[in-house]
Amino acid sequence: MRTLGTIRHVGVAAIAAAALFLACKREKEQEGPKIEIPAGQGYLTVDTTVEQGSHQIKFGFRFSKGTKKDDADLESYSFLSNQGAADQPIFSNRPARDKASFLWDTTMNINGVAGAVYTYTAVVRDKNGKEARRSLKITFRQPTTNTPSLPITGSVTLIHTGNNPTNFLVLSNRQFSAKALNELNSVNAADVIAAFFVRSAAPKTYSLITPDSLGKGVYTDPAINWTAASKPTTIFYDINQQEYNGVADSASLRQLVQGLPETRKVKYIENGDGTRATIYLESGTLPQGISGPHEYLAFKQSLGSSNIWGIIRRTNAGNSQATLEVKAIRF
């Protein structure tokens, strides 16, 4: 026969066990907030190494609440800097701009000496006290002795016709060149910037095809099979002749490309499957939704930690070929 004390003891234990069960269940139904870096916006997305000195770095983070049943709304976010000793707040615990999801970005001028390693960390916290962190590391190195004071330059003629057309714009051995399809197997995927194609029907146009759309739609024959892991992404921007002529060295090219706003992104015509595909290099009547003539283009290409920034000018175009001048830097 149980005593009253025993019954009370069993009751308290049962209540504690039930509370623990509910707490564990609640924990399982929360994933907590998350931080993502949107692609294709010019944000630093991975750890990177740069030459010593001053650099403009663009950070961007999308903060989102968890999607589980018991996840709470976002409460605050912070941005921290660690230049070798400890995390130091750039700002702390700003109220969340939206309870569910919002984007925060900034461009910072960051100066470091060779050997320095700076870490920047975004932190978001929800009203349950759960938090997420996303860190990016910048390592500074000595300038390489063979880095040219001028950007990598080249004048490339791309040809669309013939048995082996050289219609791929490629950076190899620090020079730009035209390559045929069967030559691309020996080329690093990150080096391929664009392919050239001709539209012979009226209105006649000369176009660049971005590498992230090669192998899709009607613009490539035959297709190129780049895997998602090795597929470079290239974004083009409209610039003018004055901006093109103003690029005389790597510093002025970097300043130009970093300063281009998103509103100057080139509009694309689609491949037919929803992917962006073609930049038209000829003035005249263009398909609906395409602004032209895009004779001067700045571009950003990234593949992991390898980046190529540059500018292109179309100097000549025939029935099945186009000559492009290119200035670029690789880092």
Characterization of this structure:
This protein has 331 residues and is mainly β. It folds into two domains: 34-141, Immunoglobulin-like (Sandwich), CATH 2.60.40.3880; 152-330, no CATH class. The protein contains three helices and 19 strands. The protein has a six-stranded antiparallel β-sheet, with no helix packed on it. It has a five-stranded mixed β-sheet with strand order 2-8-7-4-5, with no helix packed on it. Strand 10 (168-172) and strand 11 form a beta hairpin. The chain is globular, with a radius of gyration of 27 Å. The mean pLDDT is 80.
Strand content: 35-45%
Q: On the 0-100 scale, what is the average pLDDT?
A: 80
Distance between the termini: 81 Å
Find the structural class using helix and strand composition: mainly beta
* Tally of structural domains: 2
How is the biggest beta sheet arranged?
6 strands, antiparallel
